[in-house]
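Bug report (template v2)

What were you trying to do?
Predict the complex of my protein with zinc ion.

What happened?
Run completed; filing so the output is reviewed.

Input:
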Amino acid sequence: MIFTIQSRNEKFLEKIYNKSMKELDDFFGLNWKRNKPKIFLVKDRESINKLRGEKTEEWIVGWVNNSNIFVLDKDTYEKESYHTYSDIEYFRLIKHELAHVFTQVYSGIFNGAIKPDWLWEGVAIYLSDQNKTKNKPNQLKEFLQHYSQDNKNSSVYKESGFAIEFLVKNFGKQKLLRLIKSLKDIDSEEKFAKKFKETYGFELNYKNFQKPSKK
Ligand SMILES: [Zn+2]
């Protein structure tokens, strides 16, 4: 399979890339200066499918490949996906995918999907402010189902960002960063639950995502 690659100079894209990188670098504290991620803009669904080696759902508009990100081109965004284009939504998409790259680098996990999926997606949704485009559920009751990745099902995107927001707002970012750092040695849902409790001092369940633990 063969693809054309061309560099692109567009002020708006440069701006949202630089802003994303700066804000994410502030959050993760990586001081990332060299070999920074590259953005590849993909023109159409057919190319997305060929690059990914599978027929993708209409809502898939971006992904991570090594330390680079691939996103559907803004110019064909509405034609090739079911999303509505706006500059702010596109900025959040770029920042979401870059947040995944930072999560990989921070955790040191590059071989395969980072689990739990709700944490992987939740961090990217929270950091890219995509919670603002979602209805906040009164009560979280689904996100824990998403331990492993499932590209055919988009329901992980519903609650995960709010779960991470809850953790950061009530317990600060350092605990979350510590948890992300520890993912490298975790290979099961049980071990993750144990590590979560060790980090936060409370069990990983929906009840504890309702209000800050006083323990
Ligand atoms: Zn994502």
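What did the reviewer find?
The chain has two domains: 9-100, 113-215. The chain has a mean pLDDT of 95.
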